[in-house]
């Protein structure tokens, strides 16, 4: 049996990973490469902070969940700026991620 990290079993992690993996396929207007980069960094940050928060536990873990929630909000705002229907379709998933992270951060 292969070892699994605790974060790999979290629904919030899987949903955040789905969003982060989907962002590179979004069509973003020419000349908006900084926005594309920021969107990807914030989406990746959600995933990475969930993993680190789960591994640390306690107050340190909760702090990572708060950071991940902030990154989810940032990614959601970046999707607002992209504004295409494909981009906006990721927002409900990010809002769900944010809600789950708020619960974990308590």
- At CATH level 3, the topology is de novo design (two linked rop proteins)
Largest sheet: none
Number of domains: 1
User: Termini separation (Å)?
Assistant: 33 Å
Task: Give a count of the beta strands, DSSP E runs of length 2 or more.
Answer: 0
Low-pLDDT ranges = none
Order of helices and strands: HHHHH
H/I helix tally: 5
Using the coordinates above, name the CATH class: Mainly Alpha
Strand content bin:
under 5%
The Rg value, from CA coordinates, equals 14 Å
What percent of residues adopt helix (DSSP H or I)? over 70%
Task: Explain what this protein looks like in three dimensions.
- The protein has 106 residues and is mostly helical.
- The protein has a single domain, classed as 23S rRNA-intervening sequence (de novo design (two linked rop proteins)).
- Helix content is 75%, strand content 0%.
- The protein is built from 5 helices and no strands.
- α1 (11-22) runs antiparallel to α2, α1 (11-22) packs antiparallel against α5 and α2 (33-56) packs antiparallel against α3 (58-82).
- The mean pLDDT is 96.
Keywords:
106 residues, mainly alpha, de novo design (two linked rop proteins), 5 helices, elongated
SSE layout and pairing:
Layout: H1 11-22, H2 33-56, H3 58-82, H4 85-88, H5 91-104
């Amino acid at each position: 049996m292969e070892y699994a990290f605790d974060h790999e079993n979290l629904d919030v992690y899987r949903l955040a990973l789905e969003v982060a993996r989907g962002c590179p396929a979004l069509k973003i207007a020419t000349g908006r490469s900084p926005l594309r980069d920021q969107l990807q960094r914030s989406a990746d940050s959600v995933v990475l902070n969930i993993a680190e928060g789960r591994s640390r536990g306690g107050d340190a873990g909760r702090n990572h969940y708060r950071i991940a929630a902030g990154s989810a909000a940032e990614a959601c705002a970046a999707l607002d700026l992209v504004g295409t229907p494909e981009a906006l379709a990721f927002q409900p998933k990010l809002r769900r991620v944010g809600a789950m992270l708020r619960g974990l951060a308590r």
